Amino acid sequence: MSSTDNAVTESKSGKGGKGLVIGIVVAVIVILALVGIIIFLMLTKKDAAPVAPPTAEEQTEKRRNIVVTPDNVDEVIKEMSEREFTEPGYYETSMTNVWHFANGEAISDDAYVANVANNTNDIYFDVVLADDESQVIYKSPVIPRGSNLEQIALDTPLKAGTYESVMVYHLIDENQNTVSTLRVGITVIVEG
């Protein structure tokens, strides 16, 4: 081999050695950066403020639009029994959930709503159509504790048909201000 060949060989191995060193330095920097990021994330996660559990008002607002139907009644009862607090204005309802009317202006023979004597407040309710809750078809008078309401005629006469509806109970205080509400699904059937 000539001296020129040796110089080329040394030159090639010198470039290769420098490239290898640069590659190792870059890899070490990347690894250190990743370790730094991981440590930063672990430290900031410990310092993050703990999330407070939802307040009673937030839980009530979350459940506000639940409609109780025969299909979900067991689930709603289970959820209510698992609660750790008793909501103010809790009350029990007693009613029929299918109301029949001979025609749109007739009095129902099977519509019945009671305010159970064990309740703490008087109630009233509105019945709205499930698909258009702005249309109120019945507004009840105030029902005192231990009283019931029968012989119900709709305030808005309906044509013959079956109407999925929502009864919105209002639990009221002594000044007739709403303390809480409960939404219950009912079916209104107008025969003819």
Shape: elongated
Strand content: 25-35%
Average of per-residue pLDDT values: 79
Q: For the report, how would you describe the main beta sheet?
A: 6 strands, mixed
The CATH class designation of the largest domain is: Mainly Beta
Strand tally is: 9
Q: SSE order, as H and E?
A: HHEHEEEEEEEE
Using the CA coordinates, give the radius of gyration. Answer: 36 Å
Helix share of residues? 25-40%
Number of domains: 2
So how many helices? Answer: 3
Quickly describe the structure.
The chain is of the alpha+beta class and 192 residues long. The protein has helices spanning 3-47, 56-63, 73-81, and strands at 67-68, 93-95, 98-101, 113-115, 122-129, 132-139, 148-149, 161-172, 178-190.
Write up this protein.
The chain has 192 residues and is of the alpha+beta class. It has two domains: 1-51; 56-190, Immunoglobulin-like. The protein is 32% helix and 29% strand. The protein contains three helices and nine strands; from the N terminus they run ααβαββββββββ. The protein has helices at residues 3-47, 56-63, 73-81; strands at 67-68, 93-95, 98-101, 113-115, 122-129, 132-139, 148-149, 161-172, 178-190. Strands 1, 3, 5, 6, 8 and 9 form a six-stranded mixed sheet that branches. Strands 2-4-7 form a three-stranded antiparallel sheet, with no helix packed on it. A hairpin with a 5-residue loop joins strand 8 (161-172) and strand 9. The longest helix has 45 residues, at 3-47. The chain is elongated, with a radius of gyration of 36 Å. Mean pLDDT is 79; it is low at 3-11 and 84-88.
